[in-house]
Amino acid sequence: MTNPYFEILRPGINTTIQDSGRNYLYHIGITVSGAIDQRNYKLANCLVNNKLNEAIIEFAYQGPLLRLNNGNINFAITGDIFFNIIKNNSEVVEGKCYQNYILKEGEQIDIISTKKSAYGYLAISGGFQLKETWKSYSINTKAQIGPNNGKKYSVNEKIFIKNSILKNSKNKKINYKNPLNNIIRVLKGTNFDYFSKEAKDIFFNQSYSVTRMVDRMGMRLEGSNLENIVNTNIKSEGLIRGVIQVPADGKPIILLSDHGTIGGYPKIAVVISADLDKVAQFTPGTTIQFKEVNLDEAEKLFKDYTIETDNYLNECS
Amino acid sequence: MIKNISNLGDAAIYCDFGSDVNEVINSNVTDYFNHITNLVKQEKIQGITNLTPSYNKLIISFDLSVIDFLKLKKIIENLDIKKHIKKNNQKIKIPVCCDDEYGLDFERLSNKFNLSKDEILDFFFDKEYFCYMTGFIAGMPFLGDLDKKIRINRLDTPRVKVPEGSVGITEQFANIYTFESPGGWNIIGNTPKKVFHKLNLLDPALIKPGDKVIFYQISKEEYLEFND
């Protein structure tokens, strides 16, 4: 018997498989990848009874139109998403995020768009039938690693689902609101003192807007130039998610999950772990404000964020 | 050996081995990298998720829900680093075709260096290069040091697409673009040899820190017939 599978009738803009990411490979130039919003990724898995690190579909802006063949499934979508379920009698039901649904053979999920955020997640009870690469299912399109030969999905391709007995799945819901404020807390970067006093003031007191140059690698910002008074290049060195680097043009770039592993631009600041999910969801045109915290505060904020995530997870388990 | 340890954000440690770029400092970085990697493999340290060695820095990423900066800093400070445990020191030969369709920047380089293309190539192929690190894109080696007569800054405006296999130079370094990628290095040729094998899961990167690379020039015919 063949497994149930999704047939992709419309791929969407950037539809990939992601999970908790790929570790221990920075040293050969392979980045972490993984779901760009780890909290929404975990919530989606929780809603369909999966282990929290099961691989799921991530989409950006316009999502995919998927038809289910060969079986019935239980699914959930998280994020700030507008989507419909198209029944076999052509009836269209508007879907709600943060709850689970049964989808029957032949029915379709039409993920029309994200609303005030960039990314959303589709989890299937039992997970997808995929091959692991370096202990992760994440698709890394830059190095062409992961399922689907490391490429984002195209029309007519299939995504196979693990055979699992459809449990008498209870209705699960999380009462979740995506964060609305645009304040990003940061720690000073290792090259903070490369920047003039004016630049430091500008960085923390003026706002920046997200440009259209944004993808899973990074987010370029527009705003006042940050004057570098030491050197606009450093000897290339390692990078991590959340680093805010400033090239010679004085405009900051925030590095996200698919960032290059090594770079030679000065690092003015680093986004704290508690704000990484939030920052990745900003759409072009969003105005953001940086706020400095110290290491103790950053660690405390991460603990609080983790507890909050756990509380949401408990709501649905 | 580590001059200073600081935090990079709240989930990474930034080990600074100095500001110079040379084989001695880079070997120190490699010693730490190898030692900590072994401890991670033997599960003697918990929470480390990535190690990124570069010319003279080592960045250690960790899972903030498992360990924090001060605890891990203390562990790193108290390590008893064994020098030169097992280091890479292979010699790897890389064929390069420098015909003008592959060597994209010779005109500019000739003007800048006041050297003919052949003279530039003599300087380039005359040396054995040390691999300081790999990264930026998967498997890209950062090699050095170029002869002082052929050192140049990166392009003012980076190319949106540098072809896969391109061999580039900037400052005292040479590299190989293992994938098509944006990039600002000056391109002097292209290698048909695959430098990153994603299907070789245990050992995907052909050139590793500590290895030596010997470039040799091939004709376009040899390039096209090259079978890896």
List keywords for this structure.
heterodimer; A: 317 residues; alpha+beta; Cyclophilin; 2 domains; seven-stranded mixed barrel; six-stranded antiparallel beta sheet; 20 strands; 15% helix; elongated; B: 228 residues; Gyrase A, domain 2; seven-stranded mixed beta sheet; four-stranded antiparallel beta sheet; 5 helices; 29% strand
How would you briefly describe this protein structure?
Chain A has 317 residues and is an alpha+beta fold. Chain A is built from 4 helices and 20 strands.
Q: Helix count of chain A, per DSSP?
A: 4
Largest sheet entry of chain B = 7 strands, mixed
Count structural domains of chain B: 2
Report the CATH superfamily of the largest domain in chain B. Answer: Cyclophilin-like
Spatial extent as radius of gyration of chain B:
19 Å
Helix fraction of chain A by DSSP (H/I, runs of at least 4): 10-25%
Outline type of chain A: elongated
Description:
- The complex is a heterodimer of chains A (317) and B (228).
- With 317 residues, chain A is of the alpha+beta class.
- Chain A has helices at 38-47, 197-205, 276-280, 295-316; strands at residues 5-10, 16-18, 56-60, 65-69, 73-78, 81-86, 92-94, 100-103, 108-114, 119-124, 158-160, 183-188, 208-214, 218-222, 237-238, 243-245, 253-255, 262-263, 267-271, 287-292.
- Chain A is built from four helices and 20 strands.
- The two termini of chain A are 31 Å apart.
- Chain B has two domains: 4-77, Gyrase A, domain 2 (2-Layer Sandwich), CATH 3.30.1360; 91-225, Cyclophilin-like (Cyclophilin), CATH 2.40.100.
- The longest helix of chain B is centred in the first third of the chain and has 19 residues, at 23-41.
- Classes of the chains: A alpha+beta (317), B alpha+beta (228).
